[in-house]
Each structure stands twice: as structure tokens, then as C-alpha cells.
Amino acid sequence: MKEDMQAPHDDAKAPKNQPSGKKNGGGERRQRDNAAAASVTDAADRSMLRIGITHGDFNGIGYEVILKAFDDNRMLELCTPVVYGSAKIAAFYRKGLELQGTPVVQINEPAQARTDALNIINVIGQEAHISPGESTAEAGAAAFAALERAVADLRAGEIDLLVTAPINKHNIQSDLFSFPGHTEYLEASAGDGGKSLMILCNDTLRVALVTAHLPIAKVPDAITEDAIIDKIRIFEESLKKDFGIVKPRIAVLALNPHAGENGLLGAEEKDIIAPAISKAWERKIQAFGPYSADGFFGNGLYSKFDGVLAMYHDQGLAPFKTLSMENGVNFTAGLPIVRTSPDHGTGYDIAGKGKASEESMRAAIYMAIDIFRNRAIYDEMTANPLKKYYHEKGKDNVVLDLTKD
């Protein structure tokens, strides 16, 4: 089969995203939000969003799900993909899958990306040793090289969004990467001081985590009132800004079985979680619970809420993946950037066999685009709002300014 690896097209340059940098005070957080809003608005004016996609662990199913997702060229009507990886490795997997739809071209910079092709930027040497289904140090180093370059381009405005293929959290570890996963790395490298929140989501269910990649033995000590309040705040803000929900309802899960049974099976619900929920209400956040996780999901109560806050990784992800494995997405909320990922792992057991489903990767791309657009809409709707006034009946000369405390 003839490969479609082609030289870069210097004349195929899209305009760079150049944030205005305009800031209007209010401290570091407001400055960060204003800068992010400017970046979103500028990129939203483009005719086509440029999505950076990291190849993840190249011995896993990353290339397969990326190539399959874009083999349907209708995807190119939504975005211009830029894959950070290796043209040689992409050619290896593409040949094995016998794909001949969307052409694959090699470029040097995102600005050279063609709108009619799957564009690949080489981030590793040509002599990559491909061993589908095996964990190797070389694959880990390549996964980090792709992530590092993609984040740099994202921060520079060369790409608008980031979608990451799965990594092996062990073989990627090095002196340059000492994080439990993507979420923590992105908070440190692209958060600009913001705190991240892992949200697993699809069109109907959104599950966020108080603790993410943390050993279960360390979870109880990490469940504090401040941590829960902080995650509820970030979650509510994301549901409004990223998902377009005006007044979200958030369910908060318990830590212990049966929500602690009034202290019989644990005191965290009474001493920590319930007080945190009460303080959320003081901030006018609609948070409910704590709910026992088994009954909450078993009875379908999750369908009554806009978001669910779980205390730890498997408490939230096990039911979510049971309900949403084919179209689930991992979204990193709370940061000025937009990053999504399929909700599955490297899939070593099926790597190189053509059995991997691309549905979660496609859903991650759709979700990233939706969130990016939602942020642009939110920023436009909340920019320079009119003041709210209340005229008391019978006293037409009395006007109360409700924007003041």
C-alpha cells in the first residue's frame, strides 16, 4: 500500500492564535481568566480549530484509535488535527490496519497543517523500535516527548486544544516527568496557578474526583473539608463554563459504606463531608449528599444531577466506565487550557490486532471542541454584564444596587 507521508507545505499556513493579553484587574486569578478568555475568543474566530493529539505509548492502541478516528474524513470538517508522534510509527500501524481514507502528511510546525489531512510532527528519532503490547522505556520517553512539545505549542497558541492518547504511567517516569499522570503534569506545566479537577464525562454523566491518582491507603488523610469545598467550587465553575449548565446540581458521594451509618462505619461523613456540603450552600452552590455510592449508582440517582463528586478514583471511575466505556471522556477541568482524553488505557492486550474501538477517542475530540466553544460563549455572555437593580414597590424613588454586598 502506498504511504501518504508527504513533505510540509509552506503555503498551507493558518493564522496563529495571538491572545491580546488584555487584563482588567482583580488579582492573579482574574488576570489568568482574562488571558484564557482572550485566547479562546481569538481561536474561536478561526474557521477551523487546530487540535493537538499526542500519540501516547506507541506500543499501545493510541495510533490505532487516532488513525481510525480520522480515517473518516468528515472529521476534518470539524477540526485540523496535528499529531505529535512519529510518521514512521503512524505508517506502520496504518499499513497494518489497511486504512486508505484520510491522507497522512508530515509537517514541522502546526502552522503548516493541512486542513485535508492528518498532520504529524515528528518528536522522536526515526529508529523507533515498535513492539505492540509491550511496555518499554523507549515508548515512555516518546510519550513524554510528544506531551512536552504539544503543551509548549498549546501555550504558544500554535494549537487550540489538546487530546492525549493513553500513556503507561510507569514507563513514562523520568527526571523530567515525575507525576502520577497527565492531570498532575498539566496542572504544573500549563495551569498558571490553577487547580485541576479530573472529570470523567459523556453526554449524560459527569463524575469528578476529590482525589485522583492516589493509593487507596492515603485517601482518608486526603479527604479534608477544604479539599472537598475546593473541588466542589471548581466542579461548579466547570459545569457552568465548560458544559453550559446555568445552575448545576452536584451530588457528593460518601467515603465509607452506607455513608458511615451515623458514625458506626466511619466518621468522615459527619465530621468532614457534610460540613463541606453545608459551606458549599453558603456559597450558593447546590451540593447534595453525602450519598452512599452503591445505592446512588445502583438506583440510577445519578440521572437526577448535573455532576457527581466522588471521593476517590475507583469509586467514581468503576461505575462510570461500566455505564459509559464506549463513549467516555477524561477531561481536565480547572485550567486555562482544554484537554481531553479517551477514558481507556494503553490496551496492551489488543495492541496491533486491529480490535481497538475509536469511539472514545472520537468522543474526546468532540468533547474538546464542545468545551472550547462553550467557553467562548460563556465569556461572551458574561462580559460587561448589566447591573441588577431592584425597585421596591411603593417607593419608586428607592433603588437598590444588587451588585453590591
Strand count, sense and barrel status of the largest sheet are:
12 strands, mixed
Shape: globular
How many helix segments?
A: 11
Overall mean confidence score, pLDDT: 88
What percent of residues adopt helix (DSSP H or I)?
25-40%
Order of helices and strands: HEHEHEEHEHEEHHEHEHEHEEHEE
* Structure summary, number of beta strands: 14
Describe the structure using short key phrases.
single chain, 405 residues, alpha/beta, Isopropylmalate Dehydrogenase, 12-stranded mixed beta sheet, 11 helices, 14 strands, 36% helix, globular, disordered N terminus
Give the topology, please.
Blueprint: H1 27-44, E1 49-54, H2 62-71, E2 79-85, H3 87-97, E3 104-107, E4 118-122, H4 137-155, E5 161-164, H5 182-190, E6 197-201, E7 206-209, H6 219-222, H7 225-241, E8 249-253, H8 268-282, E9 286-291, H9 293-298, E10 307-310, H10 313-324, E11 329-333, E12 339-342, H11 359-382, E13 389-391, E14 399-401
Parallel strand pairs: 1-2, 1-5, 2-4, 3-4, 5-12, 7-10, 8-9, 8-10
Antiparallel strand pairs: 6-7, 6-11, 11-12, 13-14
Helix pairs in contact: 1-11, 2-11, 7-8
Walk me through the structure.
This protein has two domains: 1-194 and 339-350 and 368-405, Isopropylmalate Dehydrogenase (3-Layer(aba) Sandwich); 204-326, 3-Layer(aba) Sandwich (Isopropylmalate Dehydrogenase), CATH 3.40.718. The strands form two sheets. A twelve-stranded mixed β-sheet has the order 3-4-2-1-5-12-11-6-7-10-8-9, sandwiched between helices. A two-stranded antiparallel sheet has the order 13-14. It is α/β, with parallel strands linked by helices and 405 residues long. The chain is built from eleven helices and 14 strands. Mean pLDDT is 88; it is low at 1-30. Helix 1 (27-44) packs across helix 11 (359-382), helix 2 crosses helix 11 and helix 7 (225-241) packs across helix 8 (268-282). The protein is globular. A hairpin with a 7-residue loop joins strand 13 and strand 14 (399-401).
